Amino acid sequence: MEVHIITVGDEILIGQIVDTNSAWMGQELNKHGIRISGITSVGDELEDMIAALRFAFQKASVVLMTGGLGPTKDDVTKKAVAAFYNVGFTFSQETYDRILEMFQKWGRPITEAHRLQCFMPENATLLVNKMGTAPGMWFDEQGKVLVSMPGVPYEMKYLMEYEVIPKLIQRFPTQSILHRTIHTIGEGESRIAERISEFEDSLPPHIKLAYLPNLGRVRLRLTGKGNDPTLLEQELDEKVQALLPLIQDLVFGFGDTNIETEIGNLLKNKGLTLATAESCTGGYMAHLITSISGSSAYFKGSVVAYANEIKMQQLGVQATTLAQHGAVSEATVIEMVQGLLERFPADVGISVSGIAGPTGGTPDKPVGTIWMAVASRHGDYRTQKLQLGKDRLRNIEYTAIQAFNFIRQFIAQF
Amino acid sequence: MEVHIITVGDEILIGQIVDTNSAWMGQELNKHGIRISGITSVGDELEDMIAALRFAFQKASVVLMTGGLGPTKDDVTKKAVAAFYNVGFTFSQETYDRILEMFQKWGRPITEAHRLQCFMPENATLLVNKMGTAPGMWFDEQGKVLVSMPGVPYEMKYLMEYEVIPKLIQRFPTQSILHRTIHTIGEGESRIAERISEFEDSLPPHIKLAYLPNLGRVRLRLTGKGNDPTLLEQELDEKVQALLPLIQDLVFGFGDTNIETEIGNLLKNKGLTLATAESCTGGYMAHLITSISGSSAYFKGSVVAYANEIKMQQLGVQATTLAQHGAVSEATVIEMVQGLLERFPADVGISVSGIAGPTGGTPDKPVGTIWMAVASRHGDYRTQKLQLGKDRLRNIEYTAIQAFNFIRQFIAQF
């Protein structure tokens, strides 16, 4: 089985929303060894949708569509699907009753738009959507399956998890596709490729290696295909064991993870707690850390000291330090992290101060100048300076990632 | 001219990265009135890329491809393009010299992979990429244009801005497509559709209305097409003026904006400053605010009081309050915001405490219970309770958005 995903909506084409649905669907299908051969996004135009369906079914035996099922007038997916199959519409009393019940529970009257939503292409099997008003639709014609789902992420996710994936696995037998992902930080793609070029050349044709660089990190992904999943697991594990010694200093995690999760695991395993003092990152480090469920076990909190007066009043940075060295300086980040650990009962602290940009630079401190300090309760500390570009959001994100790596290296000693 | 975007990479199909490139490209092209008819993502497979090129050129006169141009071995875009045009390769000495110069500047030796990167399809016109080693490639055959760019976002953005868009505008005359976007918060898509249904029915065929819901907000986008941009501007402005009175209470902004930007503008215009005290949002509010360039003019900072001891020590919440009412309570958020404004020299403060989930709920305070308080220096305050679902990241994001709306409503009185 090969799957093609179609996402519908003018808002995707003009970049008003980022298509995160297809990324999530790709991840989920991939976990079940289901290969995705392509993703197509089209606008709310009948003929574009029909052309996309034809293109998708050229290669794929399954097409999953999201979007264009809502109650408002810009949604035309159902018309496109009916035209594609050359069928008419029929009223689904069952769907109407379910929407009516939901609205009665909310104490709101049902609208005419919702009644119109209950007309379905004749050949659709409906999939109950417990998260919203529009049901999913399953079509099975000439050995090929089309599924249409709402574009609202949590509705689509519910349908995928409880209806679509179980039905697909039952409907099609699958070949195994397995992955191993190794997360690295500290070297670029080309350098890593040079280090491991002999290893890469030694890979058999059914195992592929991909480099996935992203802001200072590179993921290495080994993908194997085969009919015997047990054998394939074993082959991939052997390849990972052969690869690791070549890049040991760069590796921070495996599989479906990220650096904030790994920092959390390291802290938990060592029984340590963390606090942050953030100027230019503006709370982004704290946000990444607390986006992990269970982070309250190792994260105490943060002072976002955006204004200089907050650096002084809430972190005890000396006015003379700010006057002599400036807010973006080694001296300031050292006082920030020391002040933080005096006030917060954490074992490890990190402080960051920099010029995120795009404005605010000076000749000797251009935009992208970042200082950071990591310290322990016992008084030992390390500092680091970064010189980045002019893109504000990129600087904030890159700084947070580098700070996490700095913490990782610092606590390795504990 | 209609553009189709093709993004290349297995990592997109399996959801290891979200395809933000095409969203950004869609935004930029749209600003120049260039219509995007579709986006297709394919893996690193020769025949899939060629099939995607054929599909894209069915309708589009321009295809923009990103990805698959790096120096590592998984990149096959150039081969696919050469096969599509049925041409061979030629060595670009100019590109080699440029890469050599970059590596000499960095003090690093050039690699064999970089030399191989300099072989280009014979019919390519090269576009200089000042941000990386792989140049862009421009093909102009049979009245249709194909552009291939690296997938690294800042390299692609550089090429789009300085090379591709200027050349496209020169190469093709364009019809005008103009948008008006109105941002609302406080009502769902269907309710708004009911309120404005007469307005919507009165729209002429060349002006379309779309509803773009996202976590408590709904954007309304009017799109007009026409040959006379001045007339079209005027028509759209008239439609906006007719629409506004119907939804005035819900509107918080226009055009390319978001609620954190509008909160910033409101604060600036009223000469007010803000600080935040965050528990369950974990710094996300501070991050959104400081992601706006110039936010230091109105944002003082934040206390991320993730642990209860930080709520007491850094915000002065009473131990008895926590014991009697719990950390997630009206009493606690009131003390948090009052403690914040005693310590931070801000005019307005907001505090948030809740159970983001997915675990940590109790029978009387289930996951998704959120309290917030907004207050001014003068002592007046308001509180609000939300009851949300179980998805941690959704709860964090939704809470931050609702808190911004709460601030917006609070400072409207000043």
Entry summary:
With 414 residues, chain A is α/β, with parallel strands linked by helices.
Tell me what the structure shows.
2 copies of one chain form a homodimer. Chain A has 3 domains: 2-171, 3-Layer(aba) Sandwich (Molybdenum Cofactor Biosythetic Enzyme, Chain A); 176-254, 2-Layer Sandwich (Alpha-Beta Plaits), CATH 3.30.70; 259-411, Alpha-Beta Complex (Maf protein). In chain A, the strands form 4 sheets. Chain A has a 6-stranded mixed β-sheet with strand order 2-1-3-8-7-6, sandwiched between helices. By secondary structure, chain A is of the alpha/beta class. Helix content of chain A is 43%, strand content 26%. In chain A, 45% of the residues are buried. Chain A contains 16 helices and 17 strands. Chain A is globular. Chain A has helices spanning 10-13, 20-31, 46-59, 77-85, 93-106, 112-116, 153-171, 189-195, 197-201, 229-247, 259-270, 284-290, 308-315, 319-325, 330-343, 392-411, and strands at 2-8, 35-42, 62-66, 89-91, 119-121, 125-127, 136-141, 144-149, 176-185, 207-214, 217-226, 251-254, 274-278, 299-305, 348-354, 369-376, 381-387. The model of chain A has no long low-confidence stretch (mean pLDDT 92). At the A-B interface, helix 1, helix 2, strand 2, helix 3 and helix 8 of A face helix 1, helix 2, strand 2, helix 3 and helix 8 of B. Strand 14 of chain A pairs antiparallel with strand 14 of chain B.
Oligomer: homodimer
Q: Main beta sheet of chain A: strand number and arrangement?
A: 6 strands, mixed
- Label the overall shape of chain A: globular
Identify the biggest protein-protein contact and residues per side: A-B, 104 and 105 residues
What would the average pLDDT of chain A be, to the nearest integer? Answer: 92
